[in-house]
Every structure is written in structure tokens, then in C-alpha cells.
Amino acid sequence: MAIFFTSDTHFGDARVLRIDKRPFKTVAEHDEALIAHWNEVVSADDEVWHLGDFALHVRPERVDELLSLLNGRKHLVAGNNDGPATLEAKGWESVQAYAELALEGRGIVMCHYAFRTWKNMGRGWIDLHGHSHAKLKPQTRQYDVGVDVWDYRPVTLETILASRFRRRTATPS
């Protein structure tokens, strides 16, 4: 079993095609691609922490359908665009505004929003967030897990941490 993180899927939300310049012609194409990308990396036994903005402007039945199409056991850390249909959907293992997790020897705080400071920041804990759609310059140990950063798919902590290391080591001194 692996644990994945993602955010800002915005299923059903045509605004992301324009505002975030996502490379899809229609919302239907967008949603189908995100479902396919999710299921390419997440198996039925995996766990996924979705850090908000799951779906917008969709019927409650569509939220339930989307959750049933996506592999894994899913937790929601609610975002500003998660309405009652998303928050009350039956497909979530849990729904909360903030969460903490111990994983791979690290403490993790998770919220839809990026924090300027967070619990145990000075002790090496990391902050996973969404909301910024790859437009926010991160702080040390702070990572945007939104689909705009990660090729429209969930990612593991190992992938997240390795990407920052590669970027840092590739930068000329």
C-alpha cells in the first residue's frame, strides 16, 4: 500500500481550463484525463489525501460517481471550492479542514492553504498544500501537491521530496 497526495482537481469546473491554462479542450476531456492519470498511479489498496477543491458545479450524484471511478481510499482536506455535495459525499474515508500524518519518519501537516509557519516547523515537519496552482514560491519543507504541479496526477511523498532535491542540486552556485 502506498500513500499519495493531490489537490485542486476541480472536476467539472470549466474555469480551470482558462485560468490555469490546463491543456484540455473541454471539461469532459479534463475530467477523463485526470481520472485516467489518477488510476495509472493509484491502486485500489492505496490511500490518497486530496487537499481540497475536488469538484465544483457538479451534482451530488456526479461527485459520488467521480469518487467511485478513482482508485484508492480517499481522504479530503477541504478546500474553498468544496461545497456540500463534495463534503457530504459517501466516498471519503474522512473529511476535515486540517490533518497531520506521520509518514516515512516525517511529520506532515496538510491543509488546502499554504502556511507561512506550521506545527513543528523547526523540528523538520513539512507542509503539504494546494490552492496556489503552482504559482506560489514555496518555503523550505513546503510543497504544493496540486495537479498543476504534478502532471495532473497524485504523487507520493518520496516523489515530492526527490523533486525538490533535484531542483536544488541542479541550480548553479
Fraction of residues in helices?
Answer: 25-40%
Give the terminus-to-terminus CA distance: 39 Å
CATH class: Alpha Beta
Secondary-structure-based class equals alpha/beta
CATH architecture title: 4-Layer Sandwich
Give me the strand/helix succession: EHHEHEHEEEEEEH
What's the average pLDDT? 92
**Domains, number:** 1
Q: How would the global form be characterised? A: globular
* Biggest sheet architecture: 5 strands, mixed
The proportion of residues in beta strands is 15-25%
CATH superfamily: Metallo-dependent phosphatases
By DSSP, the count of extended strands is: 9
Given as residue ranges, the uncertain stretches (5+ residues, pLDDT < 50) are 165-173
* Count of alpha/pi helices: 5
Annotated CATH topology: Purple Acid Phosphatase, chain A, domain 2
